[in-house]
Design goal:
The complex is a heterodimer of chains A (758) and B (235). With 758 residues, chain A is an alpha+beta fold. Chain A has 21 helices and 26 strands. Chain A has three domains: 178 residues, Immunoglobulin-like; 240 residues, von Willebrand factor, type A domain (Rossmann fold), CATH 3.40.50; 148 residues, Severin, CATH 3.40.20. In chain A, strands 5, 6, 7, 8, 9, 10, 11 and 12 form an eight-stranded mixed β-sheet that branches. In chain A, strands 2, 4, 13, 15, 16, 18 and 19 form a seven-stranded mixed β-sheet that branches. Chain A has a five-stranded mixed β-sheet with strand order 23-22-24-25-26. In chain A, helix 10 links the parallel strand 11 and strand 12. In chain A, helix 10 packs parallel to helix 16. The radius of gyration of chain A is 28 Å and the shape is globular. Chain A starts with a helix and ends with a helix. Chain B is an all-alpha fold and 235 residues long. Helix content of chain B is 49%, strand content 2%. Chain B contains seven helices and two strands. In chain B, helix 3 packs across helix 7. The radius of gyration of chain B is 29 Å and the shape is elongated. Chain B has a domain of 110 residues: Up-down Bundle (RNA Binding Protein, Prp18, Chain A), CATH 1.20.940. Classes of the chains: A alpha+beta (758), B mainly alpha (235). At the A-B interface, helix 4, helix 6, helix 11, strand 21 and helix 17 of A face strand 1, strand 2, helix 2, helix 4 and helix 6 of B.
Chain lengths: 758, 235
């Protein structure tokens, strides 16, 4: 490994881990002085085409409270001196090693052979208060999905509007449904009673045992296998009508989303707890009735904005959020996940409902209409298969983290809930979801990524032996989409270093990209409960401290300030993060902010970084496509720019290029290279559009076009004449003013970093 | 390429297309990719455009020549093609490919598609529940009505012909994949009857494997009972 960059990349590819620091400061005091906490981004199911799962189960440590797996034994012997290999491993020798002992198997996957494998379950919860075109498009997408589901998956249907209808799926005769009022919430037991799920065996059906999970192949009347029910369900979907209750002028339709979700959760709770299931909610507007309502039915009273929330003028918000949080927690406890597909031109209540997706690991998709390519293709991509022909989704994961004794776990940020498992590894200082060493991720896929934060607890006066290494083991139990249970174990180790004498080594092993994303996740996590300006102040303070610690400078001389290569991009990331929709909410609706934050909190490093600081590539006659600074100075007349913000792909033609295109040069054979130039960014954009989930918006614009604002609002405004700024000169952390350019930001930063006053 | 192993070149090309999004219903709606293009994108995703440029540390003044320069830029024509510094084409596949260069082949005949499907249904009658058979039959009738009434587009008819071919050569996975591609790319046209074809493929497949299993069993028993002349039986 020639450089740390290669080391970092290899580790990410092999183990799905990116650490903020790759050489660890050996004492607690020194670790806090590093400013950026010791933390990692971890992708539990990182795609590994070269890693076939092994057909046996992992060997666990014999100590009952430990259960570490025997991967990377030397490190484990350090951690767990009492570890003993069982007799079955007696034949270990240099040439005959089990897979776990070979260093390239720091990540290994085991298949669990025992136990029944229960089918996957998909429960569609469909809003019928849609316009005709929209409902038709949604119906077709759902019919199409029946061809994409695995044949033995179970599928169910609940429709709702003013009332909530649970459809009994049967192959014969007239279709029946159970109707519930949308105004009154019911307990799980009431729902199960009313649906007849707690009655003793009915004569025409199989006897239903008291413990459904022991007989996983029993389906209920409401959840049937796709291969049996697809024809009838196709017809049933085809016959769905718009909600029949008339909507008078000036009113919104009465939509009972809260009760519909509650019934869905209760139905699955009673029939198939603890098995992989997705509740897929399709909604075309906000809940306007019953528990979980987000706005009333009077159109003249708009749905809450950030301004309303700030002024404490959002009547329904607290109560609705509480309702959905209760549902989300129950769903996570049952091992199920909730997806929200919200397609409407106005807000639909994603702010209140976001916990349903965030706590369970379900997806949140936001579009303008079900009759758009954005929704249709995003929905199709849920059923994408990997290189093995398996679905990329997985269910019911529990992540268990163990550390060597010098480290403790402070918490995790991502689509998970705490399992409240205390132990010697658990720190009292919480970052994110803390107080536990185990989390549950009910819905996940091959790119789901958690941020996991650690604390170095080694005391300053307890030296680490020379060459000592710390170790962390990640054990993920989950249900693979083939319904088989698997365990993936990743064991990593890194060197300790004394920060007093080896600061340069620690510096060189800093991963500024991972650090930026991990700090950003912390910032966004805080932003959910703290005031916006406070979060920005905190972020600025951390940045200033980091520059003070690791910058090279002469005191009181800002012009002398330099950062080494491993830190050079970090201030830029922070600059763009401060301007990003994750922390600047007033440019977006509460629903939009919730949507952006939802995706930010679960993507892997590369995609997260794109969200923080969009990618900008320039295409011209002067050479091959090249990355350029995200700055207004990159907008030139003879260039085409491609910008990727993750949520949008923007192609922007400079003024001259646009004029040439208008003049039709691309159609002339002697100017064929111009045709190629125009095509090049389109091809690259297509690569991105073809694969990304969720599907981004696509903006093809040019100089002077109204859509150019998407590019102009993202680039650093270095070319404006705005020099007005003010910053606090008193004590207390200063805020670097919004809408300053990167240069002004950096100038302020350098001044503060070199100043002895801070 | 699509997962369809036996696909002819022109069908493969027709299956890889990009349509524009629905600009009326969704602002900046992205383009729609065909099923073939989407399944092509499976496997580990490599994000190609990931590099960034660091801002210069000393804040040196940037090269000007930005949009704010006054007056329109002098507009000559672009550099002609013989210019050696023409840019590299982007790395993605060609987009928006329409199969214009292929000879227009004669339309698939309705009978060539429906007869084998009806035959397959007949084969399954003993093995499959009556109600299911009736349901499939109903849907095949609907398909026939649509086809005869000119309500099906050419790509749908072409792909149905291919599906029937795969079905008759027992390529169940390929037939299934074609049904899926039709559901994804042409759901409006096919949704009402395609699920019947899907079920038919599944039933024919299970019938076939049952028959194969029975054959194996009967072949095994026949072997047991067989005596080889001149060979002493083991005591």
């Amino acid at each position: 490994m020639a450089t740390y960059l290669e080391f970092i990349q290899q580790n990410e590819e092999r183990d799905g881990v990116r650490f903020s620091w790759n050489v660890w400061p050996s004492s607690r005091l020194e670790a806090t002085r590093m400013v950026v906490p010791l933390a990692c981004l971890f992708t539990p199911l990182k795609e590994r085409p070269d890693l076939p799962p092994v057909q046996y189960e992992p060997v666990l440590c014999s100590r009952p409270t430990c259960k570490a797996c025997n991967v990377d034994v030397p490190a484990l012997i350090e951690l767990f001196p009492s570890f003993q290999f069982p007799p079955a491993y007696g034949g270990i020798s240099e040439v005959n090693q089990p897979a776990e002992l070979m260093p390239q198997f720091s990540t290994i996957e085991y298949m669990i052979q025992r136990g029944a494998q229960s089918p996957l379950i998909f429960l569609y919860v469909v809003d019928t208060c849609l316009e005709e075109d929209d409902l038709q498009a949604l119906k077709e997408s759902l019919q199409m999905s029946l061809s994409l589901l695995p044949p033995d998956a179970l599928v169910g249907l609940i429709t709702f509007g003013r009332m909530v209808q649970v459809h009994e799926l049967s192959c014969e005769g007239i279709s029946k449904s159970y109707v519930f009022r949308g105004t009154k919430d019911l307990t799980a037991k009431q729902i199960q009673d009313m649906l007849g799920l707690t009655k003793p065996a009915m004569p025409m059906q199989q006897a239903r045992p008291a413990q459904p999970q022991e007989h996983p192949f029993v389906s209920s009347r409401f959840l049937q296998p796709v291969h049996k029910i697809d024809m009838n369900l196709t017809d049933l979907l085809g016959e769905l009508q718009r909600d029949p209750w008339p909507v008078t002028q000036g009113k919104r339709p009465l939509r009972s989303t809260g009760v519909a979700l509650s019934i869905a959760v209760g139905l699955l709770e009673g029939t198939f707890p603890n098995t992989g299931a997705r509740i897929m909610l399709f909604t075309g507007g906000p809940p306007t009735q019953g528990p979980g309502m987000v706005v009333g039915d009077e159109l003249k009273i708009p749905i809450r904005s950030w301004h309303d929330i700030e002024k404490d003028n959002a009547r329904f918000m607290k109560k609705a959020t509480k309702h959905y949080e209760m549902l989300a927690n129950r769903t996570a406890a049952n091992g199920h996940c909730i997806d929200i597909y919200a397609c409407a031109l106005d807000q639909t209540g994603l702010l209140e409902m976001k916990c349903c997706a965030n706590l369970t690991g379900g997806y949140m998709v936001m579009g303008d209409s079900f009759n758009t390519s954005l929704f249709k293709q995003t929905f199709q991509r849920i059923f994408t298969k990997d290189f093995n022909g398996d679905f990329r989704m997985a269910f019911g994961a529990t992540l268990d983290v163990k550390t060597s004794r010098e480290l403790k776990i402070a918490g995790a940020i991502g689509p998970c809930v705490s399992l409240n498992v205390k132990g010697p590894c658990v720190s009292e200082n919480e970052l994110g979801v803390g107080g536990t060493s185990q989390w549950k991720i009910c819905g996940l896929d091959l790119t789901s990524t958690l941020g996991i934060y650690f604390e170095v607890v080694n005391q300053h006066n307890a030296p680490i032996p020379q060459g000592g290494r710390g170790a962390i083991q990640f054990v993920t139990h989950y249900q693979h989409s083939s319904t088989q249970r698997r365990i993936r174990v990743t064991t990593i180790a890194r060197n300790w270093a004394d920060a007093q004498t080896q600061l340069r080594h620690i510096e060189a092993a800093f991963d500024q990209e991972a650090a930026a994303v991990l700090m950003a996740r912390l910032g966004v996590f805080r932003a959910e409960s703290e005031e916006g300006p406070d979060v920005l102040r905190w972020l600025d303070r951390q940045l200033i401290r980091l520059c003070q610690k690791f910058g090279q400078y002469n005191k009181e001389d800002p012009a002398s300030f330099r950062l080494s290569d491993s830190f050079s991009l970090y201030p830029q990331f922070m600059f763009h993060l401060r301007r990003s929709p994750f922390l600047q909410v007033f440019n977006n609706s509460p629903d939009e902010s919730s949507y952006y934050r939802h995706h930010f909190a679960r993507q892997d490093l590369t995609q997260s970084l794109i969200m923080i600081q969009p990618i900008l590539y320039s295409y011209s006659f002067h050479g091959p496509p090249e990355p350029v600074l995200l700055d207004s100075s990159s907008i030139l007349a003879d260039r085409i720019l491609l910008m990727d913000t993750f949520f949008q792909i923007v192609i922007y033609l400079g003024e001259t290029i646009a004029q040439w295109r208008k003049a039709g040069y691309q159609d002339m054979p002697e100017y064929e290279n111009f045709k190629h130039l125009l095509q090049a960014p389109l091809d690259d954009a297509q690569e991105i559009l073809q694969a990304r989930f969720p599907m981004p918006r696509y903006i093809n614009t040019e100089h002077g076009g109204s859509q150019a604002r998407f590019l102009l609002s993202k680039v650093n405004p270095s070319q404006t004449h705005n020099n007005l700024y003010a910053w606090g000169q008193e004590t207390g952390a200063p805020i670097l003013t919004d809408d300053v350019s990167l240069q002004v930001f950096m100038d302020h930063l350098k001044k503060l970093a070199v100043s002895s006053a801070c | 390429m699509t997962r369809c192993p036996a696909g002819q070149a022109e069908v493969e090309m027709a299956e890889l297309y990009v349509k524009p999004g629905n600009k009326e219903r969704g602002w900046n709606d992205p383009p729609q990719f065909s099923y073939g293009l989407q399944t092509q994108a499976g496997g580990p995703r490599r994000t190609l455009l990931t590099k960034r440029v660091a801002a210069p540390q000393d804040g040196s003044p940037r090269v000007p020549a930005s949009e704010t320069s006054p007056g329109p830029p002098p507009m000559g024509p672009p550099p002609p093609s013989s210019n050696p510094t023409s840019p590299l084409v982007g790395s993605g596949p060609a987009s928006g490919v329409e199969p214009t260069s292929f000879p227009v082949e004669s339309e698939a005949l309705m009978e060539d598609v429906l007869r084998p499907l009806e035959q397959a249904l007949e084969d399954c009658r003993g093995h499959t529940k009556k109600q299911v058979c009736d349901d499939i039959s109903r849907r095949l009738a609907l398909l026939q009505e649509r086809w005869a009434g000119g309500k099906l587009s050419i790509p749908v008819k072409k792909r149905m012909a291919l599906l029937v071919q795969e079905l008759s050569t027992h390529q169940w996975d390929a037939a299934d994949d074609i049904h899926r591609s039709l559901m994804v790319d042409h759901v409006t046209e096919v949704s009402q009857w395609m699920v019947g074809v899907k079920r038919l493929i599944a039933e024919k497949r299970s019938l076939f494997s049952e028959e194969a299993a029975n054959e194996e069993k009967s072949a095994a028993t026949a072997e047991e009972n067989q005596t080889i002349p001149g060979f002493q039986q083991a005591p």
